Amino acid sequence: MDFPKNVIEQLAAAKRVAVLTGAGISAESGVATFRGKDGIWNKLKPEELASMDAFLKNPSMVLEWYDYRRKLIIDVKPNNAHTTLAEMEARYPYFAISTQNIDGLHRKAGSQNVFELHGNILRNRCNECGAIIDDVEFAKGSPLPRCTCNGIVRPDVVWFGEMLPVEILETSYEKAAQADVYLSVGTSAVVYPAAQLPMAAKQNGAFVIEINLEPTPLSPYVDASFFGKAGDVLPQLWRQVKERLDA
Ligand code: OAD
Q1: Spatial distance between the Cα atoms of 194 and 187, rounded to a whole number of angstroms
Q2: What is residue 145's predicted lDDT score, i.e. its pLDDT?
Q3: pLDDT tens digits, residue range 93-144?
Q4: Best probe residue, ligand 1, of 212, 222, 225, 232 (max atoms within 8 Å of C-beta)
Q5: CA triple 143-129-174, angle to 5 deg
């Protein structure tokens, strides 16, 4: 793929790069997306599985579903898109990833400055006191896992209708507002407030690049869109930027 000269130049000149990622970046690692072909929300209703109402009504069912998803995620490996972002972090003075993904793959790929907007499925917390609790069993048939305060332990993820972690959201806005270049990778850009981040970057003067399989509501507003698999497009783009930086 040949990228327009101005895109390569913007990335080569940037000091501050920030990124928003969504389920599409992990699709090539084998993690299901939510929307589009084979999306989780095509078959299941989010309000029946990923909401406080569902949890209070039937905690075992919700925990079993997360246990199932956790088992699918625990062994997956980062793909070329994740590792490219980790490489980029090593090269830019300021680099940050805000992710809507709960799979932990950015950190597995070596990225350090990662802000998980929707939590992390590999971590648990008490639904009452918020204590982070490891080593709990959510498997079918096991008793509900309890904290020492007697609250039920749940995955440390954000459910529909819940607030995003305030500090992580604020930092993500800060990174977007300060960015010279902002990348939006593999997100349908329909879930707020995360979907607002690329627009916040744009409003503050960033050059915004989108990488996705298909156009999104963000596409009309960005400076450049590249339609293809993140695991193909991102490494190619970065290779051309590196050639420029090393020239
Ligand atoms: P979606 O499933 O809504 O969107 C995934 C996007 O990735 C789509 O636009 C696809 O076209 C694109 N895509 C798929 N495969 C790709 C690939 N290999 N390379 C590049 N793009 C690809 O996922 P998100 O935008 O992350 O929230 O969804 C946002 C939130 O909605 C999730 O965090 C989750 C969900 O409900 C919560 O659970 C709170």
Answers
A1: 10
A2: 92
A3: 999 999 999 999 999 999 999 999 999 999 999 999 999 998 787 777 788 9
A4: 212
A5: 120
Residue tagged 């490996």 (tokens): 77
- The H or E element containing residue 54 is helix 52-57
Mean confidence (pLDDT) of the chain: 95
Instruction: Enter the pTM of the model.
Output: 0.96
Mutate to test the pocket of ligand 1, among 156, 185, 213 (most ligand atoms within 8 A of CB): 213
Compute the distance between CA of residue 87 and CA of residue 95 in angstroms, rounded to an integer. 10
CB 190 within 8 A of CB 35: yes
How much distance in Å is there from the Cα of 96 to the middle of ligand 1? 19
Each residue of 43-64: pLDDT tens digit? 888 888 899 999 999 999 999 9
Q: What does the pLDDT read at residue 1? A: 84
Tokens read off for 162: 């819940």
Whether 106 is catalytic: no
Catalytic residue (choose from 69, 82, 107, 118):
118
Task: Please list every protein residue whose CB sits less than 6 Å from any atom of ligand 1.
Answer: 22-24, 27-28, 33-36, 39, 46, 50, 100, 118, 158, 186-188, 191, 212-214, 216, 229-230
